[in-house]
Amino acid sequence: MNVIRNVGLAVTLGFGLAATGAAAQTVGFGSTPGGGWTNSAANAIAKVVVENTKIQMRVQPQGSQPLNNVNADVLQFGIANTYDSSFFRTGTGFYEGNGEKKNLRVAAVLAPLYGALYVRKDSDMKTIKDIKGKKVSSEFSAQKSVRQSMTGLLANGGLTWKDVVGIPAPTVPRSAQDFIAGKTDILYFALGSALVIQAAAKVGGLRVLQLDNSPEALKRLTEHLPGSAVEMVQPGKGREGLDVPTNVLRNFMLVNTNSKVSDDIVYNVLKALHDHKQQLVSTFPGLRGFEPVKMYMPVPGMEYHPGAIKFFKDTNQWKGAS
What we know:
There is one protein chain. This protein is an alpha/beta fold. It has helices spanning about 35-50, 65-70, 80-90, 145-155, 170-180, 195-205, 215-225, 265-275, 275-285, 305-315, and strands at about 5-10, 15-30, 55-60, 75-80, 105-120, 135-140, 165-170, 185-190, 205-210, 230-235, 245-260. It has two domains: about 5-110 and about 255-315, Periplasmic binding protein-like II (D-Maltodextrin-Binding Protein, domain 2, 3-Layer(aba) Sandwich), CATH 3.40.190; about 115-250, Periplasmic binding protein-like II (D-Maltodextrin-Binding Protein, domain 2, 3-Layer(aba) Sandwich). The chain is built from ten helices and eleven strands. The strands form two sheets. Strands 1, 2, 3, 4, 5, 8, 9, 10 and 11 form a nine-stranded mixed beta sheet that branches. Strands 6-7 form a two-stranded parallel sheet. β1 and β2 (about 15-30) form a beta hairpin. α1 (about 35-50) packs across α8 (about 265-275), α1 (about 35-50) packs across α9 and α5 (about 170-180) packs parallel to α6. The chain is globular.
């Protein structure tokens, strides 16, 4: 294993030096760049793990999704949504031709992730259909799942990429910079992300566009984003731009791991998350949707790590084959 090793003294996430009575194991946790939802979630998870286990978990932001490095055991954990993980593992969808990634495993379902399309608060756009002809960040060469999400959102409104003016951006943090600079009219980002709050402050406020929850629109959406849904979300703390109940995109985020990571490490990471939801949410409110009793669900094309299966059996959550 490339990153796991024994250390007697750990320096983790800037929380300072922590002397330990026994050697601790160090694992890498991959996330997207700083300011994104997965980076904030990863830092919250690492804080809980470090403070409640003998595992030292170091967050390592990636230029793109962390699945490649988790599959290669360069990193031991990473966050990605269900369809991104499934497509990557099976070499299908937007990973067609890349081959199966046989070392990738699911550790747990983390939380629903709500994706939203934001406009400036004084914009006359109200729904997804109103973005026709507008400037929209495109390409997302380093985050293929984001481009797939945008394709699905456009389809929800009966649109395609031909109906908007694409402004290339490699990642969502870069697209946020372009939105703030006035290069684009719409920002796609997760509810509760730090960069959304920053963008709102710099452009004079944001508003979330309504998605279409009709059966026809849902069918168009899920053709591109299997397992996704449109869900009405209520305004709340940290949900910038959400002033009224609004239909937004919902996906589930997974904590993925590598088949070579020890059962004990995976088990103890999940136990720390299960037992310390309040600490997770106080560190990052975007994890309020984490449900400790619903950390398991079937994921097409994916296997669960044996350490996770043991934990789910011990907590009466396992519903897979014995």
